[in-house]
Give the backbone structure.
Amino acid sequence: MGVKHGRDYEAILSDLTSAVAMIPDSYLFFDMEPQEWEVLAEAERNEVNEALAEDLFFALGSQSTIYVGSGVVIYDADTHRIDILIGKEEMTFVTLI
């Protein structure tokens, strides 16, 4: 189902892909080992992050907080955005409207 949004899905997906790429160990979401991640080419890493962004977009529709490696991805329905945090620090956010 995904989260409610007014922006074009492709634009949201692009922004969310860039945002999850900021989480240094986002690959842990897919149970990858650091060595597996390190051998991937940049294009392959981008594909993994895009798949992660898609999974998160749809999962956040039913679960508002998802841990991704050392980061946390939170859907905030009140502000119509997805927040990406590491620890208590906000790294970035993706607007949905």
Q: What stands out?
A: Residues 7 and 97 are 5 Å apart (CA to CA). The mean pLDDT is 95.
